[in-house]
Amino acid sequence: MIVLEGNTTGNVAKAQSILVKHEIRRIRMMDDPKKETLEKSSSMSYQLVYGQSLQKMTKSKYFSQTKFILKFPDGELEEMSYEELPQKIKDELHEAPGKIEPNAPTADIFESWKDGDEYALWLDGKVIPNSKLNEISQDEIVHFFSSYVHDNARSERFPQDYQVHLYTLEAFENTYGENSDIRTKPLRGTVTIPVNEPKSQLFSSSSHPLSLYQRDLESYHQALKTGPHFVERSQLEQEEMMRQFLDLGGRYYRFHAANKPDVDRPTHPFAPFVQLEKNGKTLFKLPEDLTESEKANLQSPSPATAVSSAAKTYQKLFFAYEIKRNEKRHFVTKTPEEQKRLLDEFEEVQNAYMGLDHLEKRTAVRPTNPYHPFVKIEEGGKSSFKLIAALTSEERAALGC
Questions:
Q1: How far apart are CA 105 and CA 162, in angstroms?
Q2: Nearest to residue 363, comparing CAs of 320, 301, 316?
Q3: Where are the domains of the chain?
Q4: Residue 345 C-beta-side C-alpha neighbours within 13 Å
Q5: I need a labelling partner for 248 at 20 to 30 A (CA). Which of 44, 51, 79, 337 fits?
Q6: Domain of life, per the record (predicted)?
Q7: What is the DSSP string of 293-326?
C-alpha cells in the first residue's frame, strides 16, 4: 500500500480493516515514496506481500547457539562455536532454513493410517488412537511425515512398524511456518563434522581452540577486574559470571592432557574470598577474617556448608533437566523435536558438571543420559534405541559393553 501525503492514520486503519476481511494480513506501507518507486507501482493500488517468506537469518545468527564438534583423522575431537570455526567449514555449512512446503496426505494414505497394528499416530504433537481419524476430515491434515521403526527400536507402547506425525493448519504454522522457532530462532544442539585434513593444516595459530579458549579466558578475567568485586555484584551478575566460569572450566576439562600445561584454568569468580553458609544465607569472607569455628567447618564441611556457588548453579540446571527427563513419556517415545530439545539440555547440564572441580563433583549427581536405560545404536545413518539386555554380541562389542 502506498500512503500518499495528506492521508491520516485513520484512513490507513480503515484500509487495513478492508484488506483483513479479504484475508490479506500483511501490507507494505511507504510514507514518502520516491518518484521512481511510484512509477514502478503505478499499475497497482497496493502491493501484496502476503505469503512471501521472511528474510532468512544469516548463518552467523542461525548457528549462534550451536555446538560444533570437529572430528579429525586421528580421532581427536575439538568443540567450537560457529564464530570459532575456520572459514572453510563455515562456507560448507547450509544456509538457514527457508520456506517449508506443507505435505498433505492423499485419501488412500489417510485411510491407511486407521490401521492401529501398522501405524502409531501423533496429531499436533500428541499421541492419538487411530480411531480418532474417524472424527476428523482428511482436509484438516495439511502436513505429515512418517518414519519406519526397526524391530529393536520398538517399545511395548508403540510396537507398530511406522510412526506418523500429523499437523493441522494452526499446528503446522506454529511448528514450520514463517514465524515458527525453526524459521526465526537459532539452531541449538550439537553438529559433528568429520574433517579430512590434520588439525595443524585446518587452523591458523589465531583460530586454534587453545588460542580461542585463552582469548575467552582473558576476557573473563578482565571482566572480574572491571567494576566491583564479585561479592558486591547483583545476584544476576553473579550468576552470569558463574555460568562463564563453568563454561570455561568445562572447556578446559575437555582439552587433551598434553595441551593443558599451555593454558590456565579460570580463576574462581569470588577469589580470594571463601564462601560460607550461615542461617540459610551465603556469606563471603577473606581467609584471614575467618573465625576458628569457620576454619574448622571449611576443613571438614558439613553437607549444608559444602555447596559452592558453582555447585548451586549446576544444581539449578540439573534439577530443571531432571524434571523434564522424568516426564511421563520416555525419551524414546518422544517426537524428534522433543528428543532434540532434551538432548540439548542434557549437553548443557553435562558441560556445567564438567566445569566443577573434583571436590564439587563428589557432592554433585552426574546428569543421566535422557534415553537411559536404553543405549543408542547408529546403523546405516539412522539412530535407534535398545535395552542393554537385548543387545547382540556384536552390538555389545561395538559399544564396549
A1: 15
A2: 301
A3: 1-52, 107-176
A4: 19
A5: 337
A6: Bacteria
A7: HHHHHHHS--TTT---HHHHHHHHHHHHHHHHHT
Residue type, 300: S
C-alpha cell at 53: 517468506
Grid cell of 116 as nine digits: 492401529
